[in-house]
Amino acid sequence: MAKAKNESIKLEKKKISRPGVHSKSKTSSLKQSKNYKKSYKAQGR
What we know:
By secondary structure, this protein is low in regular secondary structure. Helices cover 0% and strands 0% of the residues. The chain is elongated.
């Protein structure tokens, strides 16, 4: 017997608020930032 698919129930993802933290990534493209990471580490880039 095939399993019955219950498509009516879908879990909604709640937006996680991080008070005091403004960025969603752990790295920054600004050179002055303490979280600065070069986008490419290869030679010539």
